[in-house]
């Protein structure tokens, strides 16, 4: 059963509640984008919304009904809002991907009787690097570093993906800063 949403709920609390409610009605929603970065590195990045990609559903109408039972209402802009939290929900069209590369596997995290489906920490780094690569978004680079420093990542796969994206130079900047930060213990 999903926990109630309160004014004190963190984004992570909201994500667990939403994912659990959707999961209970046969809808698999995977947390992605900045909200996944917030889950992995909350002290380094705070998203104001939760982005879920729907990867499977049993009955299409069951998901919106489950969200309504949690107290979320959808607006004309297709953004779900709740009167007891500042965090909103968005459900961008799939498929689940980083750039043109489909994500075939995601993590499932359990907290008590709740569940959260989320892109992997490695894919969260790649997602944040996408903004750095394509729009030179330096804050996205800092977020990618924060996510990378928060736990284990597959740096070799990130490097190979970066090369396929034609961004070997920007990857080198990321990996050099990551190495320097780990060596010095520096926090952004």
Task: Please tell me about this protein's structure.
The structure is a single chain. By secondary structure, the chain is of the alpha+beta class. The chain folds into 2 domains: 11-118; 121-184. It has 7 helices and 9 strands; from the N terminus they run αβαβαβββββββαααα. It has helices at residues 11-24, 33-40, 62-70, 121-135, 138-149, 155-164, 168-184, and strands spanning 28-32, 49-56, 72-74, 80-82, 85-90, 97-98, 101-102, 107-111, 114-118. The protein has a 7-stranded mixed beta sheet. A two-stranded antiparallel sheet has the order 6-7. A hairpin with a 2-residue loop joins strand 4 (80-82) and strand 5. Helix 4 (121-135) packs antiparallel against helix 5 (138-149). The longest helix is centred in the last third of the chain and has 17 residues, at 168-184. The mean pLDDT is 94.
């Amino acid at each position: 059963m999903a926990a109630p949403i309160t004014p004190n709920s963190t984004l992570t609390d909201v994500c667990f509640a939403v994912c659990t409610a959707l999961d209970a009605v046969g809808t698999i929603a995977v947390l992605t984008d900045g909200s996944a970065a917030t889950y992995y590195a909350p002290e380094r990045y705070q998203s104001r919304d939760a982005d879920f990609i729907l990867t499977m559903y049993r009955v299409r109408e069951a998901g919106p009904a489950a969200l309504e039972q949690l107290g979320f209402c959808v607006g004309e802009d297709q953004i779900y809002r709740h009167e007891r939290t500042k965090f909103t929900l968005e459900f961008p069209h799939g498929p689940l991907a980083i750039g043109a590369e489909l994500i075939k596997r995601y993590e499932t995290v359990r907290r008590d009787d709740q569940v959260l489906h989320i892109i992997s920490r490695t894919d969260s780094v790649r997602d944040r690097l996408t903004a750095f690569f394509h729009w030179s978004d330096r804050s996205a680079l800092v977020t990618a570093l924060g996510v990378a420093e928060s736990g284990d990542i597959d740096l070799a796969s990130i490097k190979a993906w970066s090369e396929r994206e034609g961004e070997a130079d920007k990857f080198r900047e990321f990996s050099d800063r990551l190495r320097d930060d780990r060596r010095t213990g520096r926090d952004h």
